[in-house]
Amino acid sequence: DEKYYSEMLANKAQILEWESLFTVKVKTLADLKAQSTLVLDTRFFKHIDGSNPFKDKVLEEIENLEDKINGVLINSENYQALSFIQERFKGNIKGIYIDPPYNTGGDEGFLYKDSFKHSSWLTLMENRLILAKQLLKNNGTFAISIDINELHSSIKLMNSLFGSANEKAIASVRRSSVSGAKVINPGIVNISEYFLIYSHTANNWDNNKIFREKDRDTRYNTFIRNRDLDVSKWEFSTILESFASFKGILKSKLKKELGDNYDKELETFIYSNSNAICRFAALDDESVSDSAVQMKYKSKEEPDKIFVLSREDKSDYIFKNGDVILFFEDRLIEVAGRKVFGELVADIWDDVLPNDIHNEGGVKLRKGKKPEKLIHRFVELSTNKDSNEWVLDYFGGSGTTGGVALKSGRKFVVIEMGKYFNTLTLPRLKNALFGEQSGISKVTGWKGGGIVKYLVLEQYEDVLDAIEQIEGNAPKNLPLKYLYKPELNKINSTLDISKPFSNKIKYGQPTKEGFIDLVDTYNYLQGYEVKTLKIYTIENKYYKVVETNDNRIVVWRDIDLGEDDSKNVMEIAEKYPEIDTIEVNADFNILATLKNKQLQIGKRVVEVRVIHVDVFNQ
Predict the structure, then answer these.
(1) Which residue in 444, 446, 427 sits closest to 436, CA to CA?
(2) Taking a C-beta distance cutoff of 8 angstroms, is the pair 607, 601 a contact?
(3) pLDDT of residue 8
(4) Model pTM?
(5) Each residue's pLDDT tens digit, 187-205
(6) Ordered DSSP codes for 342-385
(7) What is the 8-class DSSP label of residue 251?
(8) Distance CA 409, CA 446 (A)
(9) CA–CA separation, 497 and 616 (whole Å)
(10) Phi-psi sector, 471: left (phi>0), alpha (psi -120 to 50), beta
(11) Mean pLDDT within 74-94
């Protein structure tokens, strides 16, 4: 919105990021207007006291906020993050894809003795799979990328948690060619990884047919000259005969006359007339209905006549001389806005090699990065475009899944704990929002835009590291303070619920201090879907009000002991005629006298609930 442009232009941190991330220099109002997909990061507008009036103003204008958010990016150890989002996303994720450490000995997270490495890997996987399964929809899909090292363990683990009936496919994914240093190793050269695909519930699996581009099938070589007429009047010729007639050139002289343009012009003619191009194919008597078999043999008896067998909810069978007619147009798929010949994807994937992907998504990663084309295949299999369906990846890495989800019209939750969250994962998602054109961008017609929320969660180590020493001081440069004389220490984790916007936390290594967003934390812990977020100032008092999709408002404000702001809360409640519940942080005096903890709001009786600090100590 143009009314925010002056604040944007005055924010040096935001201007610098646009230049460093997108190589876009913004100095004037005209520069700003010329870049419609510049990504605004509200973090740069936060005040020193933790308030962010700019963010408040922007979010206030968004109705149905939860529906407008395209993705959630979480910087956290994934077990804690999966636990944190349970209430909000339980049974709500349509597709889960993970690319966990392959346990090859090169993963920094597995510096164990060899005899323990395998069991540690399995424990890591199992604990998180149990949590993740609870998030998956009953008709959803779970997929894992893995290599030969833990393939069999992964299958056993998935079968134990999901059941073998839910094992839908194991695709072999070609990752490289038989060349380089690997050819000197003894035995068969390994160039494959594996893609394990499981349903949540076998008899309720919701999945889509997926296709891939391939060379044109030259068996489609018959042309129907009058396709628009009734089938009884159809006349057939070869493609070349019809092409020659179209060009006004003798068939025998096509190549000579067209020269180097022959192949290109022929392909253009074929794809432009795809509805008139067909082939004749035999039908297996054992795999079709009795009526189809009868018509097949009847058409053999009258080879010059065309027979049509209508089928409910399926394409008609059209027979000639015992063969069924298959149309070229039915084999076409759309790629980057053009029709190409395609085929159903099988369980051998040799078309998603990780070639030239080092800079895909606008970020550099030396190894371990998956091609967007690979993740796009899973997203298309497991979810539907523009249906508010969510994809989860809790080994987020460089953020490929989030970028693909954005470009494919799906929503995402991506979790990553690595130090490169701020140098790879987050920048990649910003690049996608900006509209970068690598990976699948051209295939999906991606132009940028959207809203992504990113969170940093307190970690278990942060809690331990916040321990206070009872006596003496810990040695300088001690990496983890809680390891020093633990018997003398205590945890200080007190939240002041009456001052919800002022609570601070120390986190990370090296340790940083930041403000806790109690409002958003509470929304996740309660599983609330946010409809609107509004700011009210009444009698110089600041109120942040969350309206949820289940007819409640949650009112946050600073309140002193003995203070009664019930009139203000009631004034706010009157602005929400649909609600039946009000939640407030900390009591107001009159609450103790309310019968059944209910307030009279006009002609309505509304339940009042008090948010206690205990909810944050789960």
Answers:
(1) 446
(2) no
(3) 96
(4) 0.86
(5) 888 889 999 999 999 999 9
(6) EEE--SEE-S---TT-TTGGG---SS-PPPHHHHHHHHHHH--T
(7) G
(8) 9
(9) 10
(10) beta
(11) 96
Q: Please tell me the distance from the alpha carbon of residue 437 to that of residue 316, in angstroms, as a whole number.
A: 41
Q: Beginning with the edge strand found earlier in the chain, give each strand of the sheet holding 211-213 in spatial order.
A: 211-213, 338-344, 332-335
User: 3-state DSSP helix/strand/coil percent for the chain, to nearest 5?
Assistant: 40, 25, 40
91-125 pLDDT, tens per residue? 999 999 999 987 666 554 443 344 457 788 899 89
Q: What's the Rg (C-alpha) of the chain?
A: 31
Length of the chain: 618
Q: Is 4 exposed, middle or buried (0-12, 13-18, 19+ CB in 10 A)?
A: middle
What HEC string does 547-584 produce? Answer: EECCCEEEEECCCCCCCCCHHHHHHHHCCCCCCCEEEE
552-556: strand order across its sheet: 530-538, 541-548, 552-556, 581-585, 604-611, 598-601
CA distances from 143 to 204, 210, 393 (A): 17, 15, 10
> How far apart are alpha carbons 250 and 434 in whole angstroms?
52
SS3 308: strand
Token reading at 211: 């296709």
pLDDT digits (tens, 9 = 90+) for 447-506: 999 999 999 998 876 766 655 554 556 666 655 555 555 554 444 557 899 999 999 988
What is the rounded CA–CA span in Å between residue 392 and residue 241?
53
3-class secondary-structure state, position 334: strand
Mean per-residue pLDDT for 213-238? 95
Query: What confidence score (pLDDT) does residue 604 get?
Result: 87
Rounded Cα distance, 413 and 390, in Å: 7
Q: Is the Cβ–Cβ distance between 132 and 142 less than 8 Å?
A: yes
Q: Hey, CA dihedral for 245, 248, 252, 255, is it positive or negative?
A: negative
- Written as six digits, the tokens of 611 are 């948010």
123 C-beta neighbours (distance < 10 Å), count = 11
Of 447, 459, 567, 560, nearest to 505 by C-alpha is: 459
Residue 331 tokens, joined = 């084999």
The pLDDT value recorded for residue 296 is 95
Tokens of 408: 């494919």
Is the separation of the CB atoms in 150 and 102 below 8 Å? yes
Distance, CA of 393 to CA of 144 (rounded, Å): 10
Residue in the block written with tokens 């810990």: 474
Nearest C-alpha neighbor of 132 from the set 109, 98, 102:
98
Q: How many CB atoms lie within 10 A of CB 519?
A: 17
DSSP structure string for 83-123 = HHTHHHHTT-EEEEEE-----SS--GGG-S-HHHHHHHHHH
